[in-house]
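Rather than argue in generalities, we have chosen a single entry, letters for residues, whole numbers for local backbone shapes, without further comment.
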Amino acid sequence: MSEAQVLGDAIGAGLTARTFEPKAGEGDGGHTHESACLNCGTPLIGSHCHNCGQTAHVHRTLGAFFHDLLHGVFHFEGKVWRTLPMLAFRPGRLTREYIDGRRASYVSPLALFLFSVFIMFATIQNTAGDLELGDKEKVTINLGVSKGMQEVEKALTKSRAKREEIEAKGGDTDDIDTEIAQQERALATMRRVGGEKLSSTGFSILDNVIDETQSNPKLMIYKMQSHAYKYSWALVPISVPFMWLLFPFSRRYHLYDHTVFVTYSLSFMTLLFAVGTIAGALGAASLAGVLTLLPPIHMYKQLRGAYGCSRLGAVVRTSALVVFATMALAIYLVAIAAEAGAG
């Protein structure tokens, strides 16, 4: 991805996030001095219209236009710099304050999630190596695989004939059965590498994914990344029912509370994944490994702060939440793979 594409995506992601933070980037100063709102005509009292919310002063210069653009995309009125530390170190308090209505100081969960998803996918695209092989390497690999398959098939034929002889004499076939199983697994692996079509699984969606992955793996990976980016929002509705299972039939906590919790949690996880990806690309594999230990700790702290759980209750629910999160991610990935295979 070129620098121009990165900048374009950043602006697009920022403007999308700004849809959910409509006042981001609106300054108090300007070049006009209206007495009534230019949007709805309401008499102005302060720096913003109390009826529709539009800023009282409208900028009408080209420089002011680009200033507002950059300010709205990258600044978020300073909210992001207050939100990120809270998200990292006090996620429970951040979640609870937003639910309780103290929101002016923080980026909304959905706006933060959209921007976090952009950061994660931009990081993946800019750090992933090119896995494409040259024609010479492909020919060499295919010839080697083809020769190996022939040898394994010959050995498998001999082993099966030997088993029939042993069985006919009433001997023990355990050892030869183990040998045959190993040869069959080796042959199946070579067929995958060599691009030979696997037998049907019985599920048409899964068969389509397997076929397309075998025929053009690079295209399939690209399509899955594209669909994952496009449908990243689906992780929220997929995850919310699992959160409800942690507090079933609760009169104190509702689906809205769970949605805010899930969206802030997903924002942290996507940013953490981006940091881990960068660490891996820089050769800091040990740091990337340490980062994998943080999700359960973050879940525990967010549960305690957002729901007021006891230590024991938070530990139990965190254990369940780790399992639920894995299930939600699996559902999401299967859906994305199916969509990419059908597309």
Q: What stands out?
A: The longest helix spans residues 135-168. The CA atoms of residues 160 and 180 lie 7 Å apart. The mean pLDDT is 77.
